[in-house]
Amino acid sequence: MPGHKPMKDRLNLALCANASGDCKVKPLLVYHSENPRAFKSHKILKEKLHVMWRANARAWVTRQFFTDWVNLVFGPSVKEYLQKNNLPLKALLILDNAPAHPPGLQDDILEEFQFVKVLYLPPNTTSILQPMDQQVIANFKKLFTKHLFRRCFEVAENTKLTLREFWKGHYNIVACLRIIDSAWQEVTRRTLNSAWKKLWPDAVSERDFEGFVPQATVEEIVSLGKSMGLEVDEGDVNELVEEQ
Question: What is the CA 101 to chain-centroid distance, rounded?
Answer without folding.
Answer: 17
